[in-house]
Amino acid sequence: MSRLRLPGLPRGLPPAPLPATLLVLLLAGALGLEGCGYHLRGGIRLDPALQPVHVQAAPGSVLAVEVGRALRGAGIAVDDPTAARTLLRLEEERQGRRILAYARAGRVRELEVHASVRVRILDAAGMERLPSRVLSLRRELVVDPDQILAQAEQQAALLEELTRDLARQVLARLETVPPPAAGPPP
């Protein structure tokens, strides 16, 4: 193991090995981040009193599949509505595109791809835990008129990305639900 000698240190003291110093700094940084509430993207923290969760959406909803996959991946049970303590409703899910600019000869030059959903979070009794909110995302796409086939693929990839980002926003909204208040003492 190589040793690092910093200028200005007395020669009688051997310097600490670089990897050990680096390890201590990394651990201190990780503990500091954990203490401030930071967690890695994709890590979902949901109060156990709110679990299991049922995701309700229109049949064939790609967003509902993505949200359910993320919840299961985080170890959160996704159950039928009768056993669920929390009902996550994805309503008015929309995806689309809008032309922003035309090039010569009437060809599309720039598009906006967008996706939105109304999120409602209810408890087992059907009472709203948070006010409903519309979440929406938009991305712009510059179109190369010589690449018509690639344009369709770019739009599809952009819609997939928007769906994943919207799913992350839905999960972030779910994480903000406060735990249920404790009932009156017996």
C-alpha geometry: globular
What is the helix fraction of residues, given as a range? 25-40%
The Cα radius of gyration reads 25 Å
Strand content: 25-35%
Question: What is the fold-level CATH name, i.e. the topology of the domain at 48-175?
Answer: Double Stranded RNA Binding Domain
Could you say which structural class the secondary elements and strand pairing correspond to?
Answer: alpha+beta
Give the total of beta strands: 4
What oligomerization state is this entry in?
single chain
CATH architecture of the domain at 48-175: 2-Layer Sandwich
- Name the helix and strand elements from N-terminus to C-terminus, one letter apiece: HEHEEEH
Mean pLDDT: 80
CATH superfamily of the domain at 48-175, please? Lipoprotein like domain
User: Strand order across the biggest sheet?
Assistant: 1-2-3-4
Major sheet attributes: 4 strands, mixed
Question: What is the CATH top level name of the domain at 48-175?
Answer: Alpha Beta
Low-pLDDT regions: 35-41
The end-to-end span amounts to 64 Å
Helices, by number, come to 3
Question: Your description of this structure?
Answer:
The protein has a domain at 48-175: Lipoprotein like domain (Double Stranded RNA Binding Domain, 2-Layer Sandwich). The chain has a 4-stranded mixed sheet. The protein has 186 residues and is of the alpha+beta class. It is 31% helix and 28% strand. The longest helix is centred in the C-terminal third of the chain and has 28 residues, at 148-175. The relative contact order is 0.14. It is built from 3 helices and 4 strands. It has helices at 18-35, 62-73, 148-175, and strands spanning 53-56, 86-102, 108-123, 128-142.
